[in-house]
Amino acid sequence: MPTTTRWIGLSLGADLCWPLCFEHLLRRLDLAIPWQGEEVRVGVERVTIEPFDLQQGTKYTVVLDRLTHWYYTSREWIKKAVILDDVYVLNNPWAVQAMEKHTTYAAMLRLGMPIPKTWMVPPKEYEQSNPDLDVTLRRYAKLFDLGKVGEQVGYPLFMKPYDGGAWRGVSKIDDEAKLRAAYDESGKSVMHLQAAVAPFDLFVRAIGMGPQVNVVKYDPAAPLHDRYRMEAPPIDAAERSWLEDTCLTINSFFGWDFNSCESLRKDGSFHPIDFANACPDSQVTSLHFHFPWLVLAKLRWAVFCAVTKRRMRQTLDWEPFYAVAREELPYREKLTRYAAIARERLEADRFADFCAEHLGHLDAVADEFFASPECREAVHLKVEALYPEHEVEAFTDLFFGRIQRWRAEQAERRARPAAGAGAQPLPA
After folding, report:
1. Domain spanning 117-195: CATH superfamily
2. For the whole prediction, is pTM greater than 0.90?
C-alpha cells in the first residue's frame, strides 16, 4: 500500500499553548490510516509569512487559521490557497471578513432566533479625511433623539460595537444619562444598542468545532481565569440539545467550523446574544479545565478533514435554512431542522465513524500527554507571556492543576459505564 502524507498548517499569531499541545499529540499518535488504497500519515507545520506567487502551490491539505481576521497578507494567501489549491480552511475567510456581529444578528433574526431587540446608531464622530463626508451628512443625516431611541430599546441595555469582540467597548447602561455619556465616549465606532436579557438565570457558551459542541457555564463578572466555570452548567438533556442545535446552526450558516455562541437563559428559553466569534479564545489561561477538550476537538476535526480531503464549501447557501424559516412551525422544531442541515453539511455521522475507527487510541494518548512535562511547559510559556514574573509559577500550577482535574473526570467518565446500568456519564 503506497504511503502519503497530508499536511495540516497552523496559521498563528500570538498563540503559544494550544499549537504546542496539538503538535505533541499528533506526533504521539503517529497516525498511519488506511484510506482509499493508501496509508495516510498526517504532519503538522506552522505557516510562515512571506511573499508568494498567486500560482504557487501549497503542501497543506488543511489550515487552522488564527490570524487572518486581522492580518491581511495571510488572509489573502489563504483565499488564494482555497481557490487555486483546494485547501480546507478553518474558518471560511470570506465569511470571517464579511460577517460581523451586525450581519449575524440580522441573519439569525430571519431564522426566528430570540435575539434581543437591537438598534444601530450612527457614530458620534467621523474621520475628516473623506471629502464627501460633509455633503453626505448635510443631505442625508437625520437628526435623532438618542434618549427616545433608548426608550424604544428599553433599559437596561448594552452599547457595543457592531463588529466588536473580546468585550471591546461594551457598556451596560441603566438610564438615559448613562446612555448619552457612553455615546459621547464612543468616538468613531458604529454602535449597537441591545436590550438586556433580564433577569436571566444562566449564562453559557457553546463552543463548536466541526460537529463537536462543548456547553460551558460562563461568568463574565469573574476574573478572566475563572470566567469559564469548571462545574457543569445546570441544564437538562433537552436544554443541552437546544444549545448544541443553536451553535451548529449558526456555525454552518456562516461557514465556520470553529465558533462560540453565548446565550442567556430567561424563563426557560435561551437567547443568543453574541455569536460572531469566528476566532474564539483558545488559550489555557482562560479555558484551563476546558483547554484539553478544545485541543482534542481541533485535532480530531483537522485530522478528519485532512485524511478524507474534505471539500470546503466556498460559497454560503442559505436557501435551505430560509425554506425552513418560511414554514409555519414552532421555533424549536425549526431549530431542530436547521441543525439537521448543519449536521449533514458537517458530515457528523461520517466524522463519528471515522473517529471510532481511526482515533480510538486518542483518549489514552491524551491522558498521558496532559500529565506530561511537555504539557506543563506549554502552559508555562503562555502564562509567562501574559502574567508578571512573580505570578508565573502560581498560575502555571493553577492551570496545570485544572487540567489534571479534567483528566480525573475523564477517567471517571470512562469507568462509569462499567459500574452498572444505572451509572450516568459526567458532562463533557
Report:
1. ATP-grasp fold, A domain (3.30.1490.20)
2. yes
